[in-house]
Write a structure and sequence with these properties.
homotetramer; alpha/beta; nine-stranded mixed sheet; 8 helices
């Protein structure tokens, strides 16, 4: 593990290419907006996107990634299962972290890690969102105000069909009357996963300093930290028996 | 939901057909040994196995199953993904419970629900196993002694690569020096899952009254219980807005 | 354990005696409103209150109580520590359940069980409250709609200083912009605890059918269920050694 | 928060003064053995003990302590409640970490944080202990082997009456046949707590490199990390109302 985690920000990068309205918000793509923000927090960041060969997630890229940040939305089904399985293996067996953003809740990699439908309620109606910190001790909440306000965002509402999080950090309030568990963590194998709700493509959410602060904290938290040894498989002789045999 | 949950015990049913040694232990198959035990606890039980059409798990069978008990070992890969996905949907979206036994930890359905490798250490050496209750308040531990002893069993050892359980109920001690989280629960969508370690095919474990008691408790716990309503998808008008509009 | 849990509803019963306004809402006291509601769900219910000898919580009363429902607010400090310790022992060592309501979050018994300040934000301003179910599989959510609406209530807001719940069942939305983890469970020793937020004395909340439904579900969930045996203290001879000695 | 957490190791320091046998193991006291080990991990460490004024835990000492390591055993009842309450407040409201060792499970401060009896089984019979890592992703397990072996230790067995841990990191195996959840974490208010089982006064456990490694990891994990803001109490105007008023 390097002193500072090495981040790869992955983006579907279709909305920005297909819609002038979205391009106006993120002229260089959502990935570059997030990457620029994370670099201000001192992180080493590269980017990758769907239409690159192997979606930009070759073995080599993954081997040099401590935490993968994932933004996808409209074409989750275009992500090859081979790449999904490679990313899954790198997380679960290799300890790479994953920060899944917004509609990444229905990405193949997130769903495969969760084992549920990951479905939820949603509405595009310029709701105001208030993200309240419910676990102020968590490193992902370090240095943040008690409430982050986004003047307009897509609404996500409960029931959010994910396994009960290991840790619940943020809960969102929306103008229209809904609530949402909008920042939560899970561990899968050797990897750590952080899901963070905000960031619909039509809003300038990833230019918000607090939002970037959360994602940067999430990357630092999800990075592997010198994992202990893991032995599995057929152990023909137990340690107590081996001890007797060697005595 | 019926007053008493309707159980389907599923078995791979290959060891018993292919090996005289195993058949001597379970002449009618593991499924029938478990089913007979559960019936003594008043449960309504049917059985199904791999080599039936659709592995015996048709839509109709699943629609009439509150809890599915799963025993599989050597040919997990022969279980059709179509059936796995059907069972998964019935659990996550329909609320059916799952009790996964022993080597069912690497069944396709359990792995799909967990999102990890579900791998572990193992050894066939007639270890004595002591299953200690670490959560005496749990319904699955109701009526049991503090420790269940199995004179000989296959050893399973940590690290067991599953998500941190929602509830940890049993921890096993083995003669050879290992420990194992041998009884644990998770929720996935509307369904409840209980994993219980004991039951290697070469040992008469499923004739042990305490072991059957645990499985019966697990079935009662995993049964759906009049689930609340769940609404997902596009909610075009939030309840607070609807309220203003109707005022 | 009786087939149906035996409930004792405890009330501070001061607001109703001292304020005409509150008496107008609960002429027979909050305890009797709750008790009447729970009886409609088939529960066996008695009541007790602060100004009775031993606060109505004698050894005999507790010995015949499966679940204690607690409503207190303005004079938590008048509850004798001797009674608090007796109730604590009955929960932790005897397996009695506790359903703590509303401002019971700062009762001595709840704070002693939690180990934290149990502090929170609050406001009396007739906020509308929406309680969303975030765990539809939980027995406490059985048979409920996805959202319970209370037209006017006191607001409670995060950060709520309690240990991370074992299970989070309800999250509240308030008109003023706050959220709150308003229904949650914890286990302590052999006892189960359910905290449920609603019920300020100046609102008719305990006449709401859904609210009573939740409390009734909570009582059923918190009741002891045939606990396994628990052995503690000095075990001079381990089971493995005893086995060798007797061989 | 300083870059490296400032540790105070607290010891009852009576066994070493009263028993020649124990003094032979820890001639400078258990606290100095632990402190020396932690300093090798680069931590800034001071010590304190029971018979100092205010048990060595003055306001000033606590204000300059990021993590308190606690070893106590035979005279838990001699620790003044005033000091216990001061430490509790510094943890829950100030974010100081606590690493409770061995028989510290029944110290007043640990019991007050847990809310349970914290009781367990025990035996002094030179059992061999194997501590298995069950969460290799946890920072407290970083850099450790999968199993730490102590040739002789006091046995602690289940049921251990503590709230279900937020995270379970180690499970112990003992020669005599018992298991124990021997390394676990909880959060209370703004503070983080790590309980770690080994270290009976008659064994040289705190000279074991792996054991010190775990305690050093525990101190780093339990240190406060730039906590977010926490607002509690009467919020007379909600943020949504304030927004309307200022518009």
């Amino acid at each position: 593990m390097s002193a500072l985690p090495r981040i790869t920000v992955w983006n579907e990068f279709r909305h920005e290419n297909e819609s002038e309205e979205i391009r106006a918000v993120y002229p260089d793509g959502i990935h570059n907006a997030i990457a620029a923000g994370l670099r201000k927090h001192g992180l080493e960041v590269q980017t990758a996107w769907l239409d690159q060969p192997e979606h930009g997630l070759t073995d080599e890229v993954l081997a040099n990634t401590d935490v993968l940040v994932w933004w996808g939305h409209k074409v989750h089904h275009e992500v090859d299962w081979e790449v999904v399985n490679r990313v899954h293996k790198r997380i679960v067996e290799g300890g790479m972290g994953l920060v899944a953003l917004h509609s990444g809740h229905m990405s193949r990699i997130f769903m495969k890690l969760m084992g549920t439908t990951c479905d939820l309620k949603w509405r595009e109606a310029d709701d105001r969102e208030r993200l309240w910190v419910v676990d102020p001790t968590h490193p992902i909440a370090a240095g943040l105000p008690e409430c982050i306000v986004l003047e307009a965002e897509e609404m996500y509402g409960e029931h959010f069909d994910v396994p009960a999080p290991d840790e619940l950090i943020f809960v969102s309030w929306f103008t229209g009357g809904e609530v949402f568990r909008s920042g939560a963590t899970w561990k899968r194998g050797l990897g750590r996963i952080f899901y963070f709700r905000p960031g619909h493509e039509s809003y300038p959410t990833y230019y918000n300093d607090d939002i970037i602060h959360v994602i940067a904290n999430g990357c630092k938290w999800a990075a592997p930290n010198g994992l202990g040894s893991v032995v599995r498989g057929n152990i023909k002789v137990g340690p107590e028996v081996a001890r007797l045999q060697s005595a």
